[in-house]
Amino acid sequence: MATDTETAAVESSAWPLRVEHAHDDDVPEIVALNNMFAPDGLTLHRSEAFVVSHLADYQVVRGADGKLLGQVALDEYSPSLVELVSLAVAPDAQGHGLGQRLITAAEKLAMERGYPELFAISLAEPLFLRMGFHESTILRYPEKIARYRAISRSELSIGRKFCFAKKLTPFPTAG
């Protein structure tokens, strides 16, 4: 639970918090924030090597003190298939709309890169539905099933994970 000081810090800095691309210096904080939620099955464990290799795909939000408050990343399967992964908001910053802002940033990045659709596997059903995603099925994404099997067969059987998808409107290209 957030202390009054932590809550006040988030509320006072909630605007103009902005989502920005992650930097090399963010890697340890990204790994720590992501992996904080892995034991409960809310995120997949991420190694430092994974984060470094996907750094250009990570978006982050920082507090006024520069501390990482939230993050999200894109994970490409092919030029036409991308997943929203590693969505995590620090416990003391939850409930202030940061998850929504991070999802919006991931959508924008996916559109800029020309992906026709974005999908996510999450237990945060209300959040994704509120953000315009529709419930889908993991069976539409055999690439994801293959990755789950490579990581841990238990990922396919831990509770009921929701699969969400959203069609993206590409940005017009100058022509």
From TrEMBL:
Matches recorded under SUPFAM superfamilies: Acyl-CoA N-acyltransferases (Nat)
Domain of life of the source: Bacteria
N-acetyltransferase domain span: 17-154
Entry's Gene Ontology molecular function annotations: acyltransferase activity, transferring groups other than amino-acyl groups
Family annotation (Gene3D superfamilies): 3.40.630.30
Keywords of this entry: Acyltransferase, Transferase
Protein name: GNAT family N-acetyltransferase
Taxonomic lineage: Bacteria, Pseudomonadati, Gemmatimonadota, Gemmatimonadia, Gemmatimonadales
